[in-house]
From TrEMBL:
Protein name: tRNA (guanine-N(7)-)-methyltransferase
Listed PANTHER family: 3-DEOXY-D-MANNO-OCTULOSONIC-ACID TRANSFERASE/TRNA GUANINE-N 7 - -METHYLTRANSFERASE, TRNA (GUANINE-N(7)-)-METHYLTRANSFERASE
Active site: 121
Cited HAMAP family: tRNA_methyltr_TrmB_euk
Catalytic function, reaction form: guanosine(46) in tRNA + S-adenosyl-L-methionine = N(7)-methylguanosine(46) in tRNA + S-adenosyl-L-homocysteine
InterPro entries: SAM-dependent_MTases_sf (IPR029063), Trm8_euk (IPR025763), tRNA_(Gua-N-7)_MeTrfase_Trmb (IPR003358)
The entry's keywords: Methyltransferase, Nucleus, RNA-binding, S-adenosyl-L-methionine, Transferase, tRNA processing, tRNA-binding
Length: 223
């Protein structure tokens, strides 16, 4: 249950020195000048983050994962990479938390430039749709945490879930789909399948994937 992991009372209480010691050598910095900009929600074994870490070496990024053992594995994986590659992988970290409850405890308004929801659990039954990590209500929270122009990446191998995530995003006033051209120009799009453990599994089995990639916009009645 949630009682087993600590939750910061606000984003300014997230101790960056624990996550990124090379960037923040001293503890308890309340006014971090540099902030986390990428969040991989339900990061699993962390493959995407590891790839992003070297692609964007100056960007702080974090994985959020509910399972304790998986989170510990990702922590160890990052530490081992830091030891084997001095100076690298200093910008990536992971935290055990329930993203459906605690995103506002970690990120301020407009803090994030990218959020990832890759191969989330499908929750097939109608009565369990409220457990899906993409929902109209949770998109309000994600829109709050993302800066205008920030991008939300989703992908799944479950067609029905793909349709659901796409329609939630299409119907939300604060998101608009990226164009084909923009998708092609974005190096991160290719990583959604190739760098994630789930994506690799789907590719090995020759499965199809259904991405939905949207930009945070200012709703048209506010311009
Ligand atoms: N994104 C990874 C990938 O593509 O390889 C992992 C996908 S896995 C199917 C879904 C992950 O989301 C699991 O590791 C699960 O523990 C995590 N998860 C499910 N609900 C969560 C929640 N409320 N908060 C954080 N993580 C969650």
């Amino acid at each position: 249950s949630d009682s087993h992991f600590p939750v910061p009372i606000s984003p300014s209480h997230v101790d960056y020195s624990l996550h990124y010691p090379q960037f923040f050598p001293s503890a308890g910095q309340a006014n971090n000048s540099k902030k986390i900009q990428f969040a991989d929600i339900g990061c699993g074994f962390g493959g995407l983050l590891i790839s992003l870490s070297t692609l964007f070496p100056e960007t702080l990024m974090i994985g959020m994962e509910l399972r304790d053992k998986v989170t510990e594995y990702v922590k160890e994986r990052i530490l081992a990479l830091r030891v084997a590659n001095p100076g690298q992988y200093q910008n990536v970290s992971v935290v055990r938390t329930n993203s459906m409850k605690y995103i506002p405890n970690y990120f301020e308004k407009a803090q994030l430039t990218k959020m990832f929801f890759l191969f989330p659990d499908p929750h097939f039954k109608e009565k369990n749709h409220r457990r899906r990590v993409i929902s109209p209500h949770l998109l309000d929270e994600y829109a709050y945490a993302l800066e205008v122009g920030g991008i939300i990446y989703t992908i799944t191998d479950v067609e029905e879930l793909g349709e659901w995530m796409k329609s939630c995003l299409e119907n939300h006033p604060m998101f608009e789909a990226l164009s084909e051209k923009e998708l092609e120009a974005d190096p991160v799009v290719k990583l959604l399948s190739s760098a994630t453990e789930e994506g690799q599994k789907v590719a090995r089995n020759g499965g199809q994937t259904f991405p939905a990639i949207f930009r945070r916009i200012v709703p048209s009645d506010q311009t």
